[in-house]
Design a protein that fits this description.
With about 210 residues, the chain is of the alpha+beta class. The protein has helices spanning about 5-10, 25-35, 55-60, 70-75, 90-100, 110-120, 125-150, 160-170, 205, and strands at about 45-50, 75-85, 155, 175-185. Its cofactor is FMN.
Length: about 210
């Protein structure tokens, strides 16, 4: 069995974290790099990721996340937030990054930029926001997989009130909207879920071969 599959069997949605255990700075940088390297449509990465360590701020967030203890007990709290009404500004910034990173003239990728703009800027705002929100799930997947490789527990969470989280973190002023939360740290020895067998569909039930 590959190390990746072993890590996937090891991980689970941790419900009770050991608040005394913290992720090392080195491992945190690996998790951040895994998120940064995540795939996204066009490579645009139309989102921001907030890492909340401040205990007072996390205490304010807990009621907005249905009172779940992971919010305050985990080592680190990641909040994925999509960019609202993404448009030409973000695309132009991305094109500048491509030109600088690859050392090519900006005019060489102008056509690609025009193509992106024709596909994205013409969309209704609600459609754009749904699309950018979906992109955050790709980044979350990379975080979960990288954490499992490091034997760090990570719990993805949709159970929160985005409007309240946006208000507490000042996301509205930044043109952002909270879409996902991930709590990261180390499981508490009293978390009974770590001993439960993983329940998934069988391959025969899940996959359809055509």
């Amino acid at each position: 069995m590959s190390k990746f599959i072993e890590s996937q069997n090891w991980r689970y949605a941790t419900k009770k974290f050991d608040a005394s255990k913290k992720i090392s700075d080195t491992d945190l940088e690996v998790l951040k790099e895994a998120i940064r390297l995540s795939s996204s449509s066009y490579g645009l990465q139309p989102y921001k990721v907030l890492i909340v360590e401040n205990p007072e701020l996390r205490a304010k967030l807990q009621p907005a996340a249905w009172g779940q203890s992971q919010i305050v007990d985990s080592s680190h709290l990641f909040v994925f937030a999509n960019i609202i009404n993404v448009g030409e500004k973000e695309i132009d910034t991305y094109l500048e990054n491509i030109a600088e990173t690859r050392g090519i003239p900006a005019e060489n990728i102008a056509g690609y930029g025009d193509f992106m703009k024709s596909k994205i800027t013409s969309l209704p705002e609600d459609v754009k926001n749904t699309w950018t929100a979906k992109q955050t799930y790709l980044a979350l997947g990379n975080l979960l997989n990288a954490a499992a490789e490091l034997k760090i527990d990570a719990t993805p969470m949709e159970g929160f009130e985005p409007e309240k989280v946006n208000e507490i973190l000042g996301l509205n002023a930044l043109g952002l909207n909270a879409t996902l939360i991930a709590t990261v740290g180390y499981r508490h020895e009293e978390d009974a879920n770590q001993h439960a067998k993983k329940v998934r569909k069988s391959k025969e039930e899940l996959f359809i071969k055509l």
